[in-house]
């Protein structure tokens, strides 16, 4: 979730810990790729006029803040997640479509914090008969946390890769355990996926 260039170290929307989590994310992603399991990258893309920006950031974007802007390098997925160059198609994503970015790997735009809010994610997962979601990404307190609660409301089994997400804090870990989320390291998830 939201592991985009602008959220990495030294970029306009830097989220501490996201760059450091990239190797663990890649470890899990490569295991999913090797086994042909579906991967969905959830992204934010802001229109330059601020029309689709959430209220807490809208004024900043309207006043020229260069964060996650449509067509900018900063809205692209972090390159370290991929074995090859990947480019998002903002027009396709902003139109609510699922973008195939390779094999069993897709990207979906979300207009707000939660990955299921006004997105095709639930239908996409249902079409694949997915019943378990593994979460990684950027800034646990906001988008990942919201998306995990939305997934729980939809009766998905959930794994949170605790060393492949930025911003996870002790109380957040306990909150996840309280709703039945399995916490695991990237290495343990990798081993479980490759044992399938």
How many DSSP H or I helices?
Answer: 7
The radius of gyration over CA amounts to: 16 Å
Helix content: 25-40%
Overall geometry comes to globular
Give the terminus-to-terminus CA distance. Answer: 24 Å
Sketch the topology as an H/E string, one letter per element: HEHHEEHEHEHEH
Question: Low-confidence stretches at least 5 residues in length (pLDDT < 50)?
Answer: none
* Strand composition percent: 15-25%
Spatial order of the strands in the main sheet?
A: 1-3-2
Largest sheet, in brief, is: 3 strands, mixed
Class by helix and strand content? alpha/beta
The overall average pLDDT, rounded, is 97
Q: What's the β-strand tally?
A: 6
What does this structure look like?
The chain has 196 residues and is of the alpha/beta class. The protein is built from seven helices and six strands; from the N terminus they run H-E-H-H-E-E-H-E-H-E-H-E-H. The chain has helices at residues 18-35, 55-62, 90-94, 121-128, 143-153, 170-178, 186-194; strands at 39-43, 99-102, 105-109, 132-137, 157-165, 182-184. The strands form two sheets. The protein has a three-stranded mixed sheet. Strands 4-5-6 form a three-stranded parallel sheet. Strand 5 (157-165), helix 6 (170-178) and strand 6 (182-184) form a beta-alpha-beta unit. Helix 1 packs parallel to helix 7 (186-194). The radius of gyration is 16 Å and the shape is globular.
Summarize the structure.
This protein is of the alpha/beta class and 196 residues long. Helix content is 35%, strand content 16%. Helix 1 (18-35) runs parallel beside helix 7 (186-194).
């Amino acid at each position: 979730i939201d592991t985009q260039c602008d959220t990495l170290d030294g970029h306009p929307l830097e989220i501490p810990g996201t760059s450091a989590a990239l190797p663990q994310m890649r470890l899990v992603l490569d295991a999913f790729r090797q086994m042909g399991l579906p991967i969905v990258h959830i992204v934010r893309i802001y229109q330059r006029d601020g029309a689709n920006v959430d209220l807490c950031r809208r004024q900043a974007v309207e006043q020229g803040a260069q964060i996650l802007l449509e067509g900018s390098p900063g809205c692209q997925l972090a390159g370290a997640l991929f074995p090859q160059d990947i480019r998002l198609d903002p027009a396709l994503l902003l139109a609510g479509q699922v973008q195939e970015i390779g094999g069993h790997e897709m990207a979906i735009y979300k207009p707000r914090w939660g990955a299921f809010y006004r997105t095709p994610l639930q239908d996409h997962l249902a079409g694949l008969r997915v019943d378990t979601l593994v979460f990684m990404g950027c800034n646990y307190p906001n988008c990942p946390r919201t998306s995990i609660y939305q997934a729980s409301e939809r009766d998905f089994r959930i794994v949170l890769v605790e060393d492949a997400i930025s911003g996870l804090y002790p109380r957040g870990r306990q909150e996840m355990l309280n709703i039945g989320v399995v916490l695991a390291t990237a290495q343990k998830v990798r081993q479980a996926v490759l044992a399938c």
